Amino acid sequence: MSFETNIRRECVRILGKEWVKDDPVTLYTYRCDGLTLYTSPPMGVVFPVTVQELASVVKLFHQHKISFIARGAGTGLSGGAIPQDGSVIIEMARFKEIHEIDLLNRTITVGPGVINLRITEHVHAEGYHYAPDPSSQKACSIGGNVAENSGGPHTLKYGVTVNHVLGIEMVLPDGELVTLGGKHFGMPGPDMLGLVTGSEGTFGIVTKIICRLTPNPEKAITMLGIYTSVRDACESVSSIISHGIIPAAMEMLDKITISAVEKALKPGFPLDAEAVLIVELDGLADGLDAEAEVVEKLLKDSGATTVNRARDEVERAKIWRARKEAFGAIGQISPSYYVQDGVIPRSKLPEVLDEIAEIGKRNGLTVANVFHAGDGNLHPLILYDYENEQEVEKAHLIGEEILSSCIRHGGTLSGEHGIGLEKAEWMSKLYPGNSLDNMKNVRTFFNPENLLNPGKIFPSPGRCAESKSGTTPKNSAVLNKSKMVAAKSGISV
């Protein structure tokens, strides 16, 4: 499906011919986001560069009842930017202006197309940084971070995106421009900003973001605990937290992931280790070494065979590169992989990781683990061959079993990747019908005709009864509209 002639003509009038695309190559390119297991081509793609242009095309689509989706860098992993049939993608990559740096108020105001890491690069020399640091921070846009309420390793101590966004400007689904929040916490009135952050692009299209800047710590100490048992590494996490110590980050990599990062990046992790735990402390220089000694003892007491400290910034950077590029490094050992994103209580880490290993073994696929251990945010990586249709199907089944395990152990469906298209049918397993209805009512307030990013977050109407009955959701009506990339195109993650 491509643009109707009159719609295309009007888009060209607003944006210029160069910025309206509906050719086969473009439609193929935008058929999915970082979740490549499902695809669905858009009607077309438009590239506004000003708020006025954006508002004009949104009003056009609203007038003609055409659904549309805002998309940033396309790094999302839950299908949040996968279009439904007939939807237009509004590409926000051209909104990449740094509008203002206000060091007095410790804020930076940026366009949604600005890459996450660029914020820190603009202010680091002045003694500040932007705290939320997803592993994709070299590529992901801040607008997408707001949509998904993204986290990252250092959000254990510093909080997720909602804790670092003070204000936004956004275009509503009817084209109206609104401003929420400002340069300070505690703005009067309802917390509409907190409501919009994490709404997965279903409430409005963000055009400007006021981000809170965090002072750089005086000192950081990064330690690498080495373990012969994943369970022991999990026990270390609970031990540190129970002692009242909140590290800046606590990240775990299992043996499979260690092998991958050593092949790709060579950080010097021991290949005979079953797991490594990255623990970073930061803050005032006074007292930090003493705290590090306590942490080191706790790690050893709970099973670490060795605890290494980064001796300088070079070694520290090498450790963190291994963690943040671990997903990509998995390509060294598998043609493709499927990333899950579930959250469980820290105390349940040993049991759930054992279950995940068993789930993979039972279905004949390997599951690697690299995750935010400090807050129980799991990222199992299901390794499969995209040319093997049976393995593709097994990857789906394993992902579903992992989600079921997270819910059963008192967890939830997502920590930072969102619900999107992927997990919408699971929402009724986690929330009772009245809770879902209340959530839908809030969305309807912002998006009454469901034109903006339809088919995301909530189950499709025909599936609620099945989900409530305890039947594992499979191949929902929404997902059936899409095609498995692995079987159709040979594109891997």
Unreliable residue stretches: 463-493
Tell me the total number of β-strands: 20
- Sheet with the most strands: spatial strand order: 15-12-14-13-18-20-16
- Which topology of the largest domain does CATH recognise? Alpha-Beta Plaits
Q: What is the CATH class of the largest domain?
A: Alpha Beta
First-last Cα distance? 25 Å
How many structurally independent domains? 4
Give the oligomeric state.
single chain
* Number of helical stretches of at least 4 residues: 19
Largest sheet: 7 strands, antiparallel
SS content category: alpha+beta
Strand content: 15-25%
Share of helix, binned: 25-40%
- Any idea what the CATH architecture of the largest domain is? 2-Layer Sandwich
Provide a descriptive summary of the structure in words.
The chain is α+β, with helices and mostly antiparallel strands. It folds into four domains: 5-91, Uridine Diphospho-n-acetylenolpyruvylglucosamine Reductase, domain 2 (2-Layer Sandwich); 98-215, Uridine Diphospho-n-acetylenolpyruvylglucosamine Reductase, domain 3 (2-Layer Sandwich), CATH 3.30.465; 219-329, Alpha-Beta Plaits, CATH 3.30.70.2190; 334-488, Alpha-Beta Plaits (2-Layer Sandwich), CATH 3.30.70. Helices cover 35% and strands 19% of the residues. The chain has 19 helices and 20 strands. It has helices at residues 5-15, 24-29, 51-63, 116-123, 142-148, 155-158, 192-196, 230-242, 255-264, 288-301, 313-324, 326-329, 349-363, 389-408, 427-430, 433-446, 464-468, 477-480, 485-488; strands spanning 20-21, 44-46, 68-71, 88-91, 98-102, 107-110, 128-129, 165-171, 177-181, 205-212, 214-215, 219-227, 249-254, 275-283, 306-309, 336-339, 342-343, 367-372, 377-378, 380-384. It has a seven-stranded antiparallel β-sheet with strand order 15-12-14-13-18-20-16, sandwiched between helices. β8 and β9 (177-181) form a beta hairpin. The longest helix has 20 residues, at 389-408. The chain is globular, with a radius of gyration of 23 Å.
